[in-house]
């Protein structure tokens, strides 16, 4: 199994993902929110690349069964139902609902990789489940770090490194690219204390300043959610749900 890491979405265009098995990581906070929402029983997550498109889908297609969710500059968008804090995505609020999700980097990165044959999302919360699923698929893997406005960010890269380590625990026959090697090194250096790393990274500091300190703690928990989020036909569902449909 060959594994590559894209350290920022800027490095490639949409067509790069055609036919590939891709994993999107946006630890703070989009892919952590996706894991939490599906774990709370959300029907699906519809990632979108713009607020206008989110509004359009919400009014045209999904009626009262949908929720408009996400953030701009970390904060809830005017007129939206939920922001981008994992703790908001409780069973009471999201069970059975279609979540239309717009975020600054995360949802856009998922949309960017839409031509992938297999497209998953990963966070620290569900990393082990995603690793096991990837090993079962047995395909080469592209891990895309959503980053921050086109730039590198450490939390997504450390998560990518930890995902690779987890894969390597199960499949010893991996061939990793230079960027994957660098991610492994960073995860060894900074991944020992994930909450501390998240508190000290640039986006973590911004979230803390904006009153979202609790999100950093939630996003830093390792393997508390056993969900594999899979993008299929325009929306992300839990692999277990897709398997029985
Ligand atoms: C993003 O997509 O950039 C993040 O999820 C932003 C955030 O929630 O703070």
Which key phrases capture this entry?
single chain, 245 residues, alpha/beta, putative 2-phosphosulfolactate phosphatase, seven-stranded mixed beta sheet, four-stranded mixed beta sheet, 11 helices, globular, binds D-malate
Describe this structure in words.
The mean pLDDT is 96. With 245 residues, the protein is an alpha/beta fold. The two termini are 29 Å apart. The longest helix is centred in the middle third of the chain and has 17 residues, at 154-170. It has a single domain (2-234), classed as Alpha-Beta Complex (putative 2-phosphosulfolactate phosphatase), CATH 3.90.1560. A hairpin with a 2-residue loop joins strand 10 and strand 11. The strands form 2 sheets. It has a 7-stranded mixed β-sheet, with helices on both faces. The chain has a 4-stranded mixed β-sheet with strand order 3-6-4-5, sandwiched between helices. It is built from 11 helices and 11 strands. The chain binds D-malate. Residues 26, 28-30, 71, 74, 84, 103-106, 207 line the site of D-malate.
């Amino acid at each position: 199994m060959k594994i590559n890491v894209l350290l920022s979405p800027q490095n490639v265009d949409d067509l790069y993902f055609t036919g590939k098995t891709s994993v999107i990581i946006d630890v703070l906070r989009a892919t952590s929110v996706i894991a939490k929402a599906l774990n709370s029983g959300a029907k699906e997550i519809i990632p979108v690349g713009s607020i206008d498109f989110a509004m359009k889908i919400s009014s045209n297609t999904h009626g009262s069964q949908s929720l408009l969710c996400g953030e701009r500059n970390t904060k809830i968008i005017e007129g939206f139902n939920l922001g981008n804090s994992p703790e908001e995505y409780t069973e009471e609020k999201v069970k059975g609902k279609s979540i239309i999700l717009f975020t600054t980097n995360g949802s856009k990165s998922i949309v960017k990789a839409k031509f992938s044959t297999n497209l998953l999302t990963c966070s620290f919360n569900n990393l082990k489940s995603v690793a096991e699923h990837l090993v079962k698929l047995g395909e080469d893997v592209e891990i895309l770090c959503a980053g921050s406005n086109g730039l590198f960010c450490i939390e997504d890269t450390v998560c990518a490194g930890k995902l690779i380590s987890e894969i390597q625990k199960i499949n010893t026959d991996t061939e990793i690219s230079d960027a994957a090697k660098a991610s492994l090194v960073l995860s060894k250096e900074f991944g020992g204390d994930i909450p501390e790393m998240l508190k000290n990274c640039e986006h973590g500091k911004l979230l803390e300043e904006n009153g979202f300190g609790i999100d950093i703690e939630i996003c830093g928990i390792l393997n508390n959610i056993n969900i594999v989020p899979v993008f299929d036909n325009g929306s992300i569902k839990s692999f277990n749900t897709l398997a029985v449909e």
